[in-house]
Design goal:
CATH class: Mainly Alpha
Radius of gyration: 14 Å
Number of domains: 1
Organism: Streptococcus pyogenes serotype M1
Number of strands: 0
Oligomer: single chain
Pfam family, one: IFS
Protein name: Streptococcal NAD glycohydrolase inhibitor
CATH topology: Serine Threonine Protein Phosphatase 5, Tetratricopeptide repeat
Strand content: under 5%
Number of helices: 6
InterPro entries: IFS (IPR032002), IFS_sf (IPR038509)
Length: about 120
């Protein structure tokens, strides 16, 4: 898996433990990175930003609470705007590198389906 990461694992085993140990700036850093990714115009960046927000949701299926919650409003607004761009939609619909070469659904299908759950 060279083009995508597993944000659930990164949050659960890296970010949250570091936050609990006092590295509280991580929350703001992650939110800033997700804002940049969601506004980048790059299919893979937008996908990863969506997956990071979804990872937070998924972790709430296992834990009653999390060390912090991401502020999603601006990130989701950027994603919604990006998905209205025909060039981004086209790039997502035809992205077939790495893991995506093996998926039946397109990146666009996955992103649209996931965003509906927020």
């Amino acid at each position: 898996m060279e083009d995508i990461s597993d944000p659930e694992v990164i949050l659960e085993y890296g970010v949250y433990p570091a936050f609990i140990k006092g590295y509280t700036q991580l929350k703001a850093n992650i939110e800033e990175a997700l804002l940049e990714m969601s506004n980048s115009g790059q299919a893979l960046d937008i996908y990863q930003a969506v997956q990071t927000l979804n990872a937070e949701n998924m972790l709430l299926n296992y834990y009653e609470s999390l060390p912090f919650y991401l502020n999603r409003q601006s990130i989701l607004a950027n994603m919604t705007k990006a998905l209205k761009d025909a060039h981004i939609r086209e790039a997502m619909a035809h992205y077939k590198l790495g893991e995506f070469a093996h998926y039946q659904d397109t990146m666009l299908d996955m992103v649209e389906r996931t965003i509906k759950t927020f």
